[in-house]
Amino acid sequence: MPSKKLRKGKKNPAGSGSKIPLLDLHRCMIRIRFFEEKLRELYAAGRVRGLVHLSIGQEAVAAGVCANLRDEDYIVSNHRGHGHLIAKGLGPPSMIAELFGKQDGCCRGRGGSMHMGDLGKGILGANGIVGAGLPIAAGAALSAKVLGKNHISVVFFGDGASNQGTFHESMNLAAVLKLPVLFVCENNRYALSISQSSHMAIAHVADRALAYGMPGAVVDGNDVGAVFEAAKEATARVRAGKGPYLLECKTYRWRGHGESDPSGGTKLRPAEEIAEWRERCPIERAEKALLSGGLSTKRKLANLRAKVLTEMEDAVTFAENSPLPEAVDFADFAYVD
Description:
By secondary structure, the chain is of the alpha/beta class. The protein is built from 11 helices and 8 strands. It has a 6-stranded parallel sheet with strand order 1-7-8-4-3-2, with helices on both faces. The protein has a two-stranded antiparallel sheet with strand order 5-6. α2 (59-66) packs parallel to α8 (224-239) and α4 crosses α11. The longest helix has 24 residues, at 298-321.
């Protein structure tokens, strides 16, 4: 079954009769963007330890996919996962507290940026190992099937992870057992600093679905309406018991692989390429659609931005006031019994 061609979305995703919740999707993207911009500021000030990987420019994928999920559905994220977690319902206060290593963090200060999770929200954790989330998602999907639950499992990974053995093993297992899992590849064109054209002989990761007998589709990952529609089709199919699905979202990260890169990602990528993709900002595209479709006004959008900025400042204050873990308790919660 060949992969579907690039889905560019409707000319006006906010047009009359559209069922795309564009205002909600836009709000989600703004929260992700402002959270990560605040995180970038905190990291630069030396207030966050460890490694930090930002998804600025990729917000449409997390927002569009997670808008189709239920509370009980599972997601598994990766090292660039803040957006996925926010889109699935994790709050910025507990996330920033986690980044500060505080007791009120979502993992009680033990996880940091790359290992956040919340089992109560179906977030089975981010993962700092490339490709490691794929078999976790397949396992969660298997548990749902065995237990007769109508849950689906979603895993987010990059183009580089699709070259790992875990990708192929998880795809094969999911296909053979017809597991309810949606594989979402956020193809931002680079595996660390190596372009896709240098590490892959095919143009689309979704074409690999053919080898496992599952459908694969490619979507414009910077068009939140198109991502929402593609994910809606994919999740409906998976939830109906028809087996796994591979959705590839073409997108781009504006920053470097990690914030430890002093060049901000400009040294190893062409300046004109970065500029071209910044012109495709998913948030600006959604705002234009909202305004042209009469779903919002410039004043309302400005008020939304101000409200979200305040939310992020309040989250930092919450994290600052949260206590550090007691030394005698620091080994607690490291493992789940």
